[in-house]
Amino acid sequence: MRKIITTAGKELLLLKRDRTGLLVLFLMPAILVIVITLVQENVMELTGQKNTRLLFLDLDEGGLGNSLRGRLSDNNFAIVVWDKRQKNSDALQAAVAAGDYQVGVVIPEKSSHKLQQRTEGMLEESKADDMKNAPGKIPVDVFFDPGIMPGLRSGLTAQLQMALETIAMEAKITVLERKVTEIVGQFGLARDAGPLPTAGLAALFGRQLFALQDGGDSARAGTTPPYNPVQQNVPAWALFGMFFTAIPIAGAILQERRSGIWIRLASLPVSHLLLFAGKVVAYMGVCLCQFLLIGLIGVFLFPYIGLPAFVVAGHPLAVLLTVLFSSLAACGFGIVLGMACKTYEQASTLGSTVVVASAAIGGIMVPVYAMPQTMQQISIISPLNWGLTAFQDLLVRGYGGAAIVDDLGRMTLFFLLCILFAWKLARTR
């Protein structure tokens, strides 16, 4: 028993001296549990408790737009009004397609006037029992972010359709009340004199007046593409694996430092930056192989198990650049990890924790739009978010290389800062 107590005391003493290890053991798990809990809780709120950001453009400026805005506000929609004098329908569609908003709605011109005409005309048609020449439905354009899941898209569509049909029902009741008043006045009847004429009322109240339609006919975005989980999951988890190469990079550096090889290499007429460059080139090849392997699985294996095939169409060079710059960011993180940590245990624990946390807040595990507003703002600090956003712009939204310049620039800056910090650490040692 005494030996056990002595050994335990020795381990506690070593842990007390290892401040980095203490941070990993206590601070990082605390951060992870907060991040994961917030993300999971907000995913549950997508069932109807969380506000969905909706862009609203009212080209009609009549009663229909005001009524629809009021009903959507009551149904957990965060309405953002689009100023038609400064931004048109195409700009609204581009904002939604870029992922800034989950859904956009455009009320066409003269929609309120058409609604009044349709309700009055339908009542006359129901009286005549002639529905062949019935007027068409009133179109309402709706745009969805290509990155949202199909379940959420279906739920939003149902809420929009329900709000429009409720407005249409109120308009029908208003017309019916007016017609009843005219009949009562025409025949000189009291309101409670007898049953009201009901011929054709079932047809009147059973018909829909509105038709939600995908308004995506602009040259850039086109019709909203269907949600394809393969196009998001393949690059997402490829990124996750690529950033885990930071751990073997750090392990290699620590082994060289522990064995004295690093000191002998540094004594040669070779700068530390060249030593770092050799590691970057080697592990960039590893990252390319990782992405290629996961991509081949998406192309050849997924169709055999009932999933859509992974497709890289339109901008393969831009996809390759995204892979290369993501590899640079992962290698930079591994090098600074190897220079900053003192033991392999520290590097492996800290590296895996940081990568998992970055994946959680960066949208790899849960889409960014499903997170609380605070978490969405924090997600921009994750290098995995930069890479994932670039892949989504290319593979999901169909954008060109110009759309990913900002994300590639962030990854380049991250790599340079990591190398600079690692170089300073190497010079001090």
In short:
This protein is an alpha/beta fold.
Structure, described:
Mean pLDDT is 74; it is low at 36-41, 128-134, 193-203 and 216-222. Helices cover 65% and strands 7% of the residues. It has 2 domains: 20-43 and 228-428, no CATH class; 52-214, abc type-2 transporter like fold (3-Layer(aba) Sandwich), CATH 3.40.1710. It has a 5-stranded mixed β-sheet, with helices on both faces. The protein has 16 helices and 5 strands. α3 links the parallel β1 (52-58) and β2. The longest helix is centred in the middle third of the chain and has 38 residues, at 150-187. The protein is of the alpha/beta class. The protein has helices spanning 2-17, 19-45, 63-74, 89-97, 111-128, 150-187, 201-206, 229-243, 246-259, 261-267, 272-301, 316-340, 344-362, 373-378, 383-395, 405-428; strands spanning 52-58, 77-81, 103-107, 138-144, 210-214.
Give the count of helical stretches: 16
State the order of secondary-structure elements, H for helix, E for strand: HHEHEHEHEHHEHHHHHHHHH
Total tally of structural domains: 2
Radius of gyration: 30 Å
Global geometry: elongated
Which structural category fits the helices and strands? alpha/beta
Q: Strand fraction band?
A: 5-15%
Please mark out the parts with pLDDT under 50 across 5 or more consecutive residues, or reply none.
36-41, 128-134, 193-203, 216-222
The number of distinct β-strands equals: 5
Q: State the strand order across the main sheet.
A: 2-1-3-4-5
Estimated helix fraction: 55-70%
Mean pLDDT: 74
Largest sheet: 5 strands, mixed
Distance between the termini: 42 Å
